[in-house]
Give the backbone structure.
Amino acid sequence: MTNTGTGAATTRNATSTWRNWAGNVSSRPTRTASPASVAELAEAIRTAAEDGLRVKAVGTGHSFTSAAATDGLLIRPDLLTGIRAIDRKAGTVTVEAGTPLKRLNEALAREGLSLTNMGDIMDQTVAGATSTGTHGTGRESASIAAQIRALELVTADGSVLTCSPAENPDIFASARIGLGALGVVSAITFAVEPVFLLTAREEPMSFDRVTSEFDALVAENEHFEFYWFPHTGNCNTKRNNRSAGPAAPPGTVSGWIEDELLSNGLFQVACSLGRAVPRTIPAIARVSSRALSARMYTDIPYKVFTSPRRVRFVEMEYALPRESAVGALREVKAMIERSPLRVSFPVEVRIAPADDIPLSTASGRETAYIAVHLYRGTPYRSYFTAVERIMTAHGGRPHWGKVHTRDAAYLAGVYPRFEEFTAVRDRLDPERLFGNSYLRRVIGA
């Protein structure tokens, strides 16, 4: 359970630079705070406002943008962790904002419960993941934020608001994906369900086949995604569907070979070689794209949805109208083939249903995601710029936590409810206590 004590937050003058997971963003806050209760969090925010400091909360730094960067007060929610309550009748769990998704998933499993859907890693905090729109893939089940049933928000004046469809509903609508612009989320209530089994079917497939059968593959599977390996015609597909069981997880040895040796260890070596000698990348890609074999396994959801990601990278991801996905991906493939680019990371494609969150990348439309990556330390601007040009031509919405160059003028044009969000922000934070350079660019001053 969580620490609910009161008193002064543990606050200190910052003596070191904060860096994100990928190492492409850094900032040097004036001071940091690690509140152990909502009361301490509210006091830290009020004190920062009195001292003229901007305030940002940071999770584990898995965003590739400067969404959490600040030269003011950096709030670390390391002590705001744990489950507050489980309501089996309502089918909900209330959890402190700093709780890592891994700890939440493990705790829910012990209680015989599960989230309905999740992304492909679980290192992030629950507030960090939801605030930036983290998602997995699903024909009918949407992002983690779409599974929020209520949240607790500490605003610029230190007020603590409970937000739900019944209480402060206009704030709740926007704050589920709030970008840290509306306040600091201190707790989240998620919908959960009795734990179930998923059968994963991973299978190599040609680029031409997976793109020509894309609509059928989406329709036939609860969760479908695939990875295309640039410089090849090869893809790896993954289909996750609910199963009556029994559980049949990957074997200890075979699982280690696929998930650790091939997907992390040897891939790390391949990426390092490709960065040092770019001309080797196409040959490496041909070998890598054939290294993973077909396999099936059945396990509880978080063990199927998520996998370890130890090779560090930078990433851009765009959300497109689902009907535009295949055409846009083919344009990306053609662009790479006619360019001098050497791309060592596969391109990831996922899907999501429409949802009702104003700044969700799937807001109001069925969505397909196209994500591009490059190994950390590799120059990425030429590649990402070329991909972004294709994505924006299709009305793409950039993932809020991943590299992009879009500004408020563009984003207001692709989000029909953009002004609804900015109106809530103007009301809750007129002085822009929670502002920074990233927010000024993407939602305006």
Q: What stands out?
A: The two ends are 39 Å apart (CA to CA). The longest strand covers residues 197-206.
